[in-house]
Amino acid sequence: MTLDLNSSYDCANASSDLPNLIAQLDSLRNGSASTAEQQEEINRLENQIRFIQNKCDIPHSNH
């Protein structure tokens, strides 16, 4: 899932977007040895999670 994350992101969607992003991230992290492509996806997911947390003033977790 690629979200359109920009300054107009609607924080009302965070309650569904964040759990989905975190689940995807956990799945990738718990998978087999990561390739460069998988590492890029992990970085992208981490960035999306941080963006939503920062924009919507949501406390950061360990993700």
Automatic annotation (TrEMBL):
Keywords: Coiled coil. It comes from the Bacteria. The keyword Coiled coil applies. Residues 28-55 form a coiled coil. This is DUF2524 domain-containing protein. It comes from Paenibacillus glycanilyticus.
